[in-house]
Structure formats: C-alpha cells, structure tokens
Description:
6-stranded mixed beta sheet; globular
Amino acid sequence: xxxxxFDQWGAQNSQSVWPALYQGIARVGHSAVSHDWDADxxxxxxxxxxxxxxxxxxxxxxxxxxxxxxxxxxxGTLCRGHTWKLGINGLGSGAFWGREQDPLRSQHMxxxxxxxxEPGSDIVIVLQRDxxxxxxxxxxxxxxxxxxxxxxxxxxxxxxxVRPHPRRxxxxxxGVTMDRPLRSQGTxxxxxxDTSLSRAWAVINVNSGAxxxxxxxxxxxxxxxxxxxxxxxxxxxxxxxxxLRPDRDQWFQDLCHTExxxxxxxxxxxxARLL
Length: 275
C-alpha cells in the first residue's frame, strides 16, 4: 500500500509526528510519499479547515469522493503533547481505530478515570470550532449556541455557563455566564478544564475532546452521536435533569486505543492495527 502524507499542511505541533509516521509506515511494510494525490490512502493533520490545514479539506474530499481512506492524525486528548490520535476516515465515533486491543493498555496510560463527581448546580456548554469536518451539518456556533440555550430552557432553569473555544471569540449572552479558558502554565495549547467543571451538573458538547475529558474527569456529558464519548453520554438533551453516570471501564479501554505515543507510532505498533 502507498500512503500520501500531506505533511506540509499540519499544525505547529505536528512536526514531531511526521517522522514517526514515515518510520512506522515503513516498519509495517508500506510506502509513503509526500503530497501524493493518487495514493491508496491519504494522511492528513486534523479535520480543522483553517490556517495551514485549510488545504487538507481538498485532500479529504478528493480521497473520500474516490472511496479511498484518509488517516487523520491529531494531537491527543488523553495525554496532550505526549499521545496522538490516529483514526481512519474521521476522529469521532464513526472512525476506524483498529482491530485488536491490549487489555492492559489503559493501566499504562498517564491518565486514569476519576470517580463520578458529586453533582454541581450549573450546566456547562463547552464550545468547539465550527470550521471543522466534525461540525458538518450544524449551524454557525453563535446560532447553535442560541438555539441550544433556548432548547435547554424548556427543560431546566439551572444556571448556564458557556466555555468558548480558546481560539474563537464568543459574544456575551444575557443571563449566561462566560467561562473564558485559561491556558495551563508551562504549556503551549493546553487549557484548564477543571475550573469549568468544578460546579457542573452536566456538560454539553457536540463531539470535541473537551467532552471526552469531562467524562474522564467524572462529569456527566450530553453529546452528539458522533462524539467519541457517545457510548457514555446522554444523547437526548431534553433529559438534562437526568444525566447518565454509567460504567466507563470498557469505554475507557477503547479510548486508550485511539491515541499513541511517538515511539509506538514509529515502531509500527499503532499503524499495524490500522493498516
């Protein structure tokens, strides 16, 4: 199999990942060519169509329209800056993440499940980018937020707090508290989520890593079916007063097989499961 790696169109934090991918692909007996539009499979960074990654949308469409797979790589949610997501044809519940599992993998990850929190009082809406394939079919963020708040008000009078995406401006909304993300000290692009979760009754998030992190940290989630957290989240937002707190062990085990260290990518371990 020949893979076309579009390594010129990645984010700044992609630079250490490309060499590992080239090594790993060779280790499992395949070849890789930079910016090959006619390969058996494309490899792109993220599904955000902005900045350096804007041209990746053309790659995505070119390959998917020809029914050829696209391996999507992105910074990890579990151990940001240390693990990296590798999913075929997406980054959500509809993506392919590999076949076999190591039953002990979750025990060796740097992050562990926290117990479900004691219920707080507030509903926290965690926003995400709308210039992404993951937002496809949804209205612009401001419209979605307005409609979501109006919908929630049919079922609850709980305080609502909105946590904007750190790289997106969100206008102030009357009667709603804005939780502006604060970058974690000593990091380039990691933001404190625990502050927003400290008083949360439940989190609402469409399908980004913030929703996954909320569940890992013990906060009930309402999400879209496309979210990686969908198996342990509420999907009917009219049930906001009855958030789910299911067993998360198998879900977390599955989640730990969506992200890999640079060493695991370079050795071929991650790619052997996918290819």
